[in-house]
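Example 3.
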Amino acid sequence: MSLLEIENVTLKFGGLTAVDNLSFTVQQGEVFAIVGPNGAGKSTVFNLISRFYTPIQGSIVFDGHDLLAEKASDVADHGVARTFQNIELFEQATVLENLLVGRHRHRKSNFLTELFFTPSVKKQELQSRHFVEEIIDFLDLQAYREKRIAGLPYGVRKVVEVARALATDPKLLLLDEPASGLSVEETTDMRWWIDDIRRQMGITVLMVEHDMGLVSGVSDRVLAMADGAKLALGTPAEVQSDPAVIEAYLGHAA
Amino acid sequence: MRIVFKTNYMQDIRPWKDGYQLSLYLILLAVVFAAPFVIDEFYLGELTNVLIWAIAGLGLMILTGHTGQASLGHAAFLAMGCYANIILIESGVPFMLAFPLAGILTGIIGMVIAIPALRLHGIYLAIATMAMSILVDDIIVLTEPWTGGVGGKFAPPVNVFGIMIDRWGTPREFYYLCLVVAVVVTLGYINLLRAPLGRSFIAVRDSEVSAQAMGIDVARTKAISFAISCGVTGLAGALMGLFAGAFNNETFSVIISIQLLMMIVIGGLGSIHGAFFGAIVVGFLPQFLSISKEWVGAALGGADVAIPGLEFGVFGVILILFILFEPMGIYGRWFKIRTWFELFPFYRKDMFKRQKSYLKTERLR
């Protein structure tokens, strides 16, 4: 069953075609990776799904909903969570508060009940906290729970971002370069976590990643992009041996 | 060294960490409730002034400290609250109804003004709100039939549960009125901060793009923040009018807006404590200066020392010193001292240092 369907999507910034008539589908329960040289339009695809950009043509359908009819802030409500290439955490808040913001889409209280902190708000807070604690356990963040983001090392921030995305309880997780800037050891951790996210939590993962070791280790299918267009789509091994992909990365054979 | 060992989620959800912290705040509350029996009328008036500034500071803190939207126009909302309250009372609405109505009206007006201003960021928003503050000054003059224009208005004594309260006749009762409002506003503020709405303010402040990705409607959240902020500021304005006794268009000039913003920066942005610390500085600085002027004058052989603009000069110097050496304000300094005692002897000098190497601009490689 396909969870995310992207069909003939094109996006132009002035004269530059960032995404060129791109189509692919992500199946329920798989890990789908997008690779490609810098400027290929990988992160732009993420920003299209997050509705930060609107394509000039094509359709994006998630779980039966037309995402193009939604505002950026409503995408999360359908169960799409994401991380950012250049970590976008709430710097002056603690790790715990960051994760609790992830629970925002499950908010049932309103301004008045929160102003008086009624028993129902208290119950909701306890539930949010319980959910968040499970994510903290899962990603081994206990030691940082009450630390402010501003003082945390880069590797931990990367994990906190994944944790915050998981706190929204998503169906689809978009990971934008989850391993960039991580050490070899941290990358290995990330690989097992992505595997666990898919197997234990049943969350479909769509990721952009440059580290081919991580991509071939964890993903079921890979889409290779260059200049906004599809180059190849298949298993990691198929894509890595595709002549068009090799050409995009290494240039023409003389 | 003090260790708080958490065994229950409620320890993070309720406003106090443990009994020790709760008892400190209860002692503080007892002290401020007992204050009128200890200090004389003059200082009680000053303390009332501090409380009113603190309420105004809480209002601006919601918007600037927690939602990250700088406003140089909050004097306009003080004015709106003040005039709304008095005009309602003069048309026969009892104070107990007119006062909250003044806050609600100011909040609604604030939100309506905010909707077009929401597209503006940082300095542009500050300039737009400052322009509004200057405009309101003129509007008060233009709408003379209601506002009394340049001639101004006088605040009548107000009826609270059958007790007639006015600032000069019954300073003690007026102090309690302001204290109760300050406590109620603070409690509401604490409740919002530990609930999803307060966290969404912080999210919008720190990263709009990821707030959106978390399902937070940024424009809506900013509008709500504006509404609450202006509403609280309106309440402070209503009290300020009663405190001043007489007021006109110049009472709420743009200088007040700037002073209010400087106040919460000195107090410490993004904390409830900061609004109170800042209000203490703003409230007591003029007294402190006039006492020290007398002292210097006496030391120089009875000469009168008059330095025009001294208060603002000193205020500016304090602000610059804080921005340079303690950007987190008085609350930041207080927090560090408290942490030093709580962790003694394990406090490290670089504990609150930010990891500068990961600033956004430096990541663009």
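Chain A touches chain B through 51 residues (CB under 8 Å). The longest strand of chain A covers residues 2-13.
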